[in-house]
Amino acid sequence: MDIRRLHAFVVLAEELHFGRAARRLHVSQPPLSIAIRKLEDELEVRLFERDSRNVALTEAGKALLGRARHLVAESARATDEARRVARGEAGVLSVAYTPTATYEILPRVIAAFRRAHPDIALELREMRSPDQVAAIDEGRVELGIACLPLEGDLETRVLATESLVAALPSRHRLAKKTRVDVSELKGEPFVIVRPDVEPAWAGAVARALAKHGVGGDVVQETDTKIAMLGLVAAGVGVSVVSSSMRVLERRGVVMRPVAGVGVRLRIGVVSRPDRSARAQAFLDAC
Which family does the similarity line name (predicted)? Predict the structure, then answer.
């Protein structure tokens, strides 16, 4: 059934007057009469009893009215939802994120986005930064929050720049200092997260430390930063990590800024140039 004819039927059923119904529909009476007649022909029933003075619903018309109202309302809602999705005001947005983003960036960005766009549902997927490139190119996610830089042709917007801090056992000789010079870490055994987890940042940190003869004695690699901090707390070694990790506050570990190293680690949001309206809305909220 044509939804426009159903709408015309509902309005006429409510007004029971062709002139008033036509004015509500912003049409003249002849097109309204044609729409009602075509609906009746389609249904093969008479919906109205009408003469030159009166219009009344038939029993069939009364039976149709409730369902017609529901269909017209559902059509309006579906149309509105489709238009809102097209404008980036509703729908589902799939976002990949590196675990590093969960310390500071992700909570802030998600909160801002949900305030601005409460009708867009977020589908969040934890993913290594290098894996996000293929996931975006293949359409498995629309956006990524990643440790930069990444290979590929994705557009990038930097969200934060981080410095380096030393993660030290709480009883370490340097733990009482407010700041640690990079040279003071020379000769220390290091516990690190596997470099392939976040290769861009791991490579940048390793190169920066190597210029000062630091970090060469790696005694343990871990799969996660949580495990790495646990081994630091156990006294297995020290580590140098991004400054946002200070929010973890692991018992038995102290974090101290590292002086004498100029490296800055960037974290940002990556996307295709032809991103959707809802993906653009996420970028605008960042």
Answer: Belongs to the LysR transcriptional regulatory family.
